[in-house]
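Q: Could you write out the predicted structure for this multi-component system? I'm mainly interested in how the pieces pack against one another.
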Amino acid sequence: MKPKYIVGLLVVAGALAYLIFGGLGQNLVYFITPSEYFQQIDRYQNRPVRLGGLVKQGSLDYNPQTLELRFVVTDGVKEIPVRSSGTTPPALFGENRGVVVEGRFQGETFVSQNLLVKHSETYQAPKEGWTPEQVRKLIEETQ
Amino acid sequence: MTPGLLGGIALIAALIFSVLGLVLAVLAYTLRDGRYLEAARRLSTLGLMAALVSFGALEWAILTDDFSVSYVANHSSAHNPLWVKLVTPWAALEGSILLWALLQTAYTWLVSLRAGQSLDVWRAPVALGTLFAVQVFFFAVMVFVAHPFDAVPNPPPDGRGTNPLLQNHWMMAVHPVLMYLGFVGLSVPFAYAVAAMVAKRFQSWIFETRWWTLVAWGFLTAAIFTGKWWSYEILGWGGYWAWDPVENASIIPWLLATAFLHTAQVQERKGLFKGWNFAFITLAFAATVFGTFLTRSGVIQSVHAFASGPVGAWFLLFLLGVMAVGLGLLARVSAEVREAGEVRWISREGALLAGALFFGTFAFVVVLGTLWPLVVEIVSGAKVSVGAPFFNQISIPLGIFMLLLMGIGPVLPWRNTSAQVVRNLAAMLIALGVGTLLGFGLGLTLGVSFAIGLFAYNLTAIWLMVAQGVRERARSLGISAGQALVELASSHKRRFGSHIVHFGIALAALTIAFSQTYRVTEQKTLQVGETWQTRGMEVRLLSIGVREESNRFAAIAPIEVRSTSREGWGSDGRYQTRLNFYPQMSAPLATPVVKYSLYNDYYFVLMQFDQEKGQWATLKVIVTPMVWWLWVSGLIIVLGTLYILWPGGARVPSRQMAPTAGD
């Protein structure tokens, strides 16, 4: 092979690698629970995150007229308030149910851009005294 | 005899026929005896018949509500309407494998018709043997792991019902079947490639394989577009592509098959790129298995995971087997398929190879993005997902390069360039610049303006090629331009078909740029009778009602829409937005109403309603430009493919009438 081809190939490969790995680094969306958030608060500031947990009993506040939705996501140990405006609670959304919220942390509050509640017909509410790990497993399974 | 028993027996028969067919094909190859080949051909007919009986038995069980069959008990219901029952066989794992296997036997049978004719006696046993081996895999999976006809000891009075997402739209009857026809269709080119490599006949396979690949490619294209349309019409978020693992699973084989279709032309004409062709075809077929593995194994979470089950490990083994056979054989013959000459980059063959490499790269990047969450989880234990932004960021530059190449490639002559070509390229670049500036002048974004430029550029390329051919022919034969066009189009079907397909792709790219850039979403809660001014429309909520249907219960909120300004043109009408409640699900499914118009698409979704008094409802309105044209472009691409494939005396008259016609 001629040297000019090798140089060209390297340039193309380099550009591609930059595009892929730069892009992958920026666009990874971490999936975390509230406990995991409090372990590494700085890591998750200002980047897209999927926050998984349960909607805390008694925390759901939805105004259908203004479409403002507030609730608290918990994993049994830690809690994070979530705010979402201009949305409608999706199907299967409710207190004590698993939810995955896509959005960013703004200070103390998690501002949601998207609520994901995957449909499961065999959902069971978590019981008292579950560990975050168990809650997480439950949420992953019900997705 | 019960349907369950009949289906089970037919499955075992199909497995036995497939094993026997494989054995006979191997004997035919090793003993060089045509009688074994003849017997293997007959077994492919028997295999097809057994698969048909088995599939028919499943339909029979579903239609007669025989809940002693596990598949029916788990995935059907006596209350389903007839059409839902008819499509239920592919609504879950076991049945969809049965459909896959049925189509596989059909393709094997079609190939067996060619054995001894266009498929010579050295390659035919290997090609048939490969297809029988694939069949053995699918029937074995059904018989041993995912049996659709397992008996239920105490049949329930009613089944658990079909997944509501799948019975919410009639596309269920179309899209999955097209997808399987495309996926399974890629097994034939793979079998031909294996046969060519085993029999060391590296040139003759390419002509017919290109045809088979184009058939599968046409089905895949149709499946991808109908899938987009389906998800647009049903999922209620106003988009049609989310880079979900299952969508990626459909685009990867499509990209690799596209790469092959381009390099195959060079091998046909010049005998170059043999190694590339073997590699692309192997990878394209492997990608179909890879996609099935991804989505059926639960390794990667997906909204499409309707049919996960214990078959993941089997598909992984099968995938490794396919890769090992294809790439192992290629390694063995690599010294013999090395390029005879050097490839000039500035020529048709150079552009075709560059295009194929772009398709290959794109496929590789999509695989990487799809698997990246697994890599991160293994390395660091963190759960991540690769968002759509990553894929968009990668596919935009790759897409731009491909659109540029798509214009240049066909304009460039084989081997060398000429002054005429330079003039053509200049005209195309001018079109690119003018189109982009026009977009800017209209106040569009940079990306959309450039998309207009690329569309103009490709349109110019097609126009120049067609016009030059027509002019030369009209002048040399003294006929009118119209007559020359008709004659050229029917004598050069491949070339004209590819122009049509390329035009469809250019149009699709334009519509994607518009719809992705200018989609807007509005949401509001309305009282009954209230009017909402939004996006050039007046939306009035008329009432809220409920309706009982056999398999579901629906909340319906009729709305009346009037356009008030240009933005809302074409939105006028009365629409029944609805939420469907299925007994299997504790929450409703929204069914969007879509009103297409020549420019904007209006998308109305009933999000929620006042369940106590029926006084208010929350509505979502999504306005997206040019989505209708995306479906048109899909249709154009499929029609172009059909135009190429359509049988007809295309070549003979062209030789008689114009012995000097270039191309």
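A: Regarding packing and overall arrangement: Strands of chain A lie at 28-32, 49-55, 61-63, 68-74, 79-85, 98-106, 109-116.
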